[in-house]
Amino acid sequence: MDDDNRAALVTGASQGLGRSLMHALAAQGWSVVGVARRLEPLERVVSEVRRRGGVAHAIAADLGSAEDAARIAGRATSLVGPLDLVIHNASTLGPTPLRPLLELPEEAFDRVLQVNVVGPFRLTRLLAGSMALRQGGSVVFVSSDAAVAAYPTWGAYGTSKAAQDHLCRIWAEELPEVRFLAIDPGEMDTAMHAAALPDADPATLASPDDVAQALLQHLDAPSGSRLEVSR
Ligand SMILES: NC(=O)c1ccc[n+]([C@@H]2O[C@H](COP(=O)([O-])OP(=O)(O)OC[C@H]3O[C@@H](n4cnc5c(N)ncnc54)[C@H](OP(=O)(O)O)[C@@H]3O)[C@@H](O)[C@H]2O)c1
């Protein structure tokens, strides 16, 4: 891979860990394309990256939509060329306050799976084939400890993260030319964490900027690995 000409797609790039990944990658010379539903905050991140001398683009799209997935794949490659890295970072918790499965509407459970599992599956199908043909590229699924531990009220999200971890392992088995990783970032001071656990003390949480730096240091791990970013 030409180190000066690497291209990455980051979903959920308008805030939290996704925003930090956009900055960290651009600072290392990657051209970055960010995805989120709301264009305005996403464009703010793109402008920040460009002000610091980086190459960045925004695509407003919903990961839960099949039409949007095709548009993301086409637009991203037309903006920056073939992708070397895809980070499936966008996720939804479902309705907050979080609630037990018995109180969770079926549509809400379905939506969480669409955004957190089916969306990354679709996008990977659209992008990983070309990575395999080029004999390279990495796909990272941002995981969670909720993929492993059964936390009451985190049912939809935890199920989706467990499925995402397994999806990652199966992609790794089926497509050895591409590196697939699941990385648990640990607890971070972000809007998602505040929505899930509003009483948490932000001082006890990692900064998404620090986690982004640490996460990028794991990109050479063996395909199919599940890793935890140490804090
Ligand atoms: N925060 C933590 O403590 C923690 C712990 C473990 C794992 N994680 C994981 O780390 C990742 C990043 O979390 P975060 O805390 O940074 O999240 P966050 O602050 O809630 O940011 C989520 C990002 O995803 C975008 N997004 C949400 N739904 C989307 C959709 N349907 N289509 C496209 N974009 C969508 C949001 O923008 P729009 O709303 O504009 O779409 C936003 O840019 C997630 O995968 C999360 O599960 C977080």
How is this structure best described in words?
With 231 residues, the chain is of the alpha/beta class. The chain is 45% helix and 15% strand. It has 7 helices and 7 strands; from the N terminus they run βαβαβαβαβαβααβ. It has a 7-stranded parallel beta sheet, sandwiched between helices. Helix 1 packs across helix 7 (208-216) and helix 4 packs parallel to helix 5. The radius of gyration is 17 Å and the shape is globular. It binds NADP nicotinamide-adenine-dinucleotide phosphate. NADP nicotinamide-adenine-dinucleotide phosphate binds at residues 11-18, 35-38, 62-64, 89-92, 115, 142, 144, 185, 187-188, 190-193, 208.
- Tell me which ligands are bound: NADP nicotinamide-adenine-dinucleotide phosphate
Unreliable residue runs: none
Continuous helix count = 7
Sequence of secondary-structure elements: EHEHEHEHEHEHHE
What is the quaternary state of this protein? Answer: single chain
Tell me the helix content: 40-55%
User: What percent of residues are in strands?
Assistant: 15-25%
With strands numbered from the N-terminus, the spatial order across the biggest sheet is: 3-2-1-4-5-6-7
Radius of gyration: 17 Å
Give the name of the CATH architecture. 3-Layer(aba) Sandwich
Examine the coordinates and then state which fold CATH places here, giving the name of the CATH topology. Answer: Rossmann fold
CATH class: Alpha Beta
Mean pLDDT level: 97
Write a short abstract of this structure.
This protein is of the alpha/beta class and 231 residues long. 45% of the residues lie in helices and 15% in strands. The chain has seven helices and seven strands.
